[in-house]
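Milestone M4 deliverable, item 7.
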Amino acid sequence: MKEFALKILASWFGCGRAPKAPGTFGTLGAIPVVVGFSLLGPMFYLLATLIFTIFAIFVAHFYEILTGRHDDKEVVIDEVAGFLVTMAWTPLTWTYLLLGFLLFRFFDILKPYPISYVDRKVGGGIGCVGDDLLAGILSNIILQLVLQNGWLS
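Output delivered:
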């Protein structure tokens, strides 16, 4: 039973089992979480994101122990955590969700430095989630620049 629950959470309710682009499907599966957390207000959004991220690190870590595979493609709970970071302090609009989604997928797929370093060198749940957190931070920085400069107004 515990293994089943771990697999369900790691794959974010099956999103990670998509035959093509599981990370993209995992990010799509994060959208309802972003919406739900956004309803809490900005400070509670950050607190909920922190708690979720710690939870995701543990899930990824125990999944790695269970399977012996690091950052398996089926594990997409890290994409959920990364997308939550991407969307922090941004308006909850389709425009920002779409731009955030595209930016996050761009950084998560291309993995420029330092994302690539964390992806290759850091093991366990921290390594699995860490590269996505960095992708989320870079994406969020760009979204903040867009927001502050009114480029989508």
